[in-house]
Amino acid sequence: MKKIIECVPNYSEGRDRAVIDGIVAAIASVEGVRVLNVDPGEATNRTVVTFVGEPEPVVEAAFRGSRAAQELIDMRRHHGAHPRSGATDVLPLIPVSGITLEECAALARALAERMWRELGIPCYCYEAAAFKPERKNLAVCRAGEYEALPEKMADPARKPDFGGAYDETAARSGASNVGARNFLIAVNFNLNTTSTRRAMAVAFDVREKGRKAREGGSLTGKLLKDAAGEQIWIPGTLKGCKAIGWYIDEYGIAQVSMNITDIDATPLHVAFEEVCRAAAARGLRVTGTEIVGLVPKRVLLEAGRFYLEKQQRSLGISEEEILRIAVKSMSLDDLKPFDPKEKVIEYLMEDPAETAVRERLVRMRVKDFVAETASESAAPGGGSVSACMGALGAALATMVANLSAHKRGWDDRWKEFSDVAEQGQALVAELTALVDEDTAAFNRIMDALSLPKGTEAEKAERAAALEAATLYAASVPLKTMEASLKALPLALEMARKGNPASASDAGVAALAALAAVRGAHLNVRINAAGLTDKAPAAPLLSRAAGIEAEAVALQEEVLAEVDRHIG
C-alpha cells in the first residue's frame, strides 16, 4: 500500500489573500503534493490548508510553507480571535494509509528540528510527537500564546523542544507547534427531531467526556461533586469522540455533531451504530449521516465490510460495491448526493490524466481491447493478453465463491466462501494492473532502442538502458505467472466445495489461469533470451519453469473435480 499522509497546517493570516496565496504556492511547488483545501477565516485571522501526498514530499512542502509564512507574516502585528503562538501556528502530520502514527511522529520531530536549525523557528512537539507527556496537549504547548514566548523561552521547564534564546527571528515568526495525530473525522448524524435538547442528550450519551452527574440521574437535578468538591462526570460510550447537539435551519432538523479524534478506537460505522442505539433509547431515529470534509478510503471500506458481515454476505466484491454498501448503510446520501470521488482522500489525490495513461488498456471496452490487440502495433501483445486471461481466471473463481456464499441452505458457510472471494478479488486487481504494466515494459524497451548511439558513451548508455529494460520486461510476465498460479488453488477449492451448478466455471477459471501461466512463460523466455548478461536470466527461467509445472498439475486436479460433478 502506498504511504500517504495528510498535513493540515494553520497559519496566522486569514485576511491578506496575497500572503495566503504565497504560502499555498510554496506548498504546491513540491512535486507529488496535492493541495486539497484552503480555508481562510477573517475573524480568526487564520487560514487552514489541507494537503496530502507521500511522506517525503509532504514534509518538504510543510517546511516550505513554514518558510514562506516566516517571510510573509510578522507576528508582532498579528491579532485574531483564535489562540496562536506563531506564524505557522500548528503543523500536524496525519497518517492516511500505509503508515503508522508513530512513523508520522518521527517525521514531525525531524521536521521541527529542521525548522529550528535552518529557519530559526522555535518549535514545540505535541500530541504523538511530544517529548514530554504534558505536551501531548496542544493547549499546554501554546499556553500564554505568542505574547508569553519571551518568558517561556527563558524558562528551562517551558522552553521549546527546539529553540534557543528569544531573538529577532523568534519575535517575528513566533513558535510553531509541530505534531502528529490520527485522522479526525467531522461527522453529523441527522435526527428525526427538531429538538436541540434531545440531540444534546444523545451527544452526552455517546461522547467520551459524557455528562455532568446530577441527583437522581435527571437532566435538571442538582450537580453532584466528589469529596474534593470536584464535579463528577458520567462518561459516554465512545472513546476518542467529542459531540454536541444542534439545530440546522438549512435542513430543518437537529443533528448530533461529532469529531472522531481516534478512528482506530472508534471507526465511523461504530459511531453510527452507537448514535443509532442512543437515539432509539430516547425515542429518536438517525435518518442519515453527513461527513464534513474528507475521509481516508479505509474508513468507508471498513464500514462497508462491517455491514456485509452483519448481513452474512461475501466481502469478496469490488471496492466500488463495498463503498456503495457503506454509503447506503449509513445513509450518507440523506441530505445531498454522496460521491466517494469527491470525499475520499485517495481518489482526490489521483491525477486523471496520469491514471488514464497508466490504465489505458484496462479502461477499454472488451471490443476495443480486442481490436487494439489485433492491430498492426506490437503492443498490447502476448504478455498483456496473458495477464488479462489470468485476471479472468481469478474473476471466475471469485464468482463461484460469491455464488456459493449466497446459495440457499449454505448460509452457515458464507464466511468460508467470502474468504476465498476476498483472495480472488486481490488477484483480480493485481493481474488487471499487469495488463498495462506488460505493455509499459515493452514500451520501455522501445524507448531504450531509440536512444542515440553515436559516441562510445552514448552506446554504453544505450546498452545499459536496453539491458535494464529487457530484464524488467522479463520480470513483469513472471509476476503474471506468480499471480495466475495463485488463482488455481482457488479454482480447485471451488471445484471441490463450491456450488455444484458452477463447477464448469471453476474449470474455465483453471483453464484461463493455466493459459495465462503458459503465455506469460513464453514472454519470460523470449525477453530473457535478449539479455546480454545471462546471470540474472537463470533464476527467472528456473522460477518460471517451476511455476508452469505446478500450474499444470493444479489444472489437472481442477478438471478432475469438474468431471466428477458434470460427468
Description:
The chain has 567 residues and is α+β, with helices and mostly antiparallel strands. The chain folds into three domains: 4-180, Formiminotransferase-cyclodeaminase, Chain B, domain 1, CATH 3.30.990.10; 185-346, Alpha-Beta Plaits, CATH 3.30.70.670; 358-566, Formiminotetrahydrofolate cyclodeaminase monomer, up-and-down helical bundle (Four Helix Bundle (Hemerythrin (Met), subunit A)), CATH 1.20.120. The protein is built from 19 helices and 13 strands. Strands 1, 2, 3, 4, 5, 6 and 7 form a seven-stranded mixed sheet that branches. α9 packs across α10 (319-329), α15 (382-405) packs antiparallel against α18 (503-528) and α17 (456-497) runs antiparallel to α18 (503-528). The chain is flat. It starts with a strand and ends with a helix.
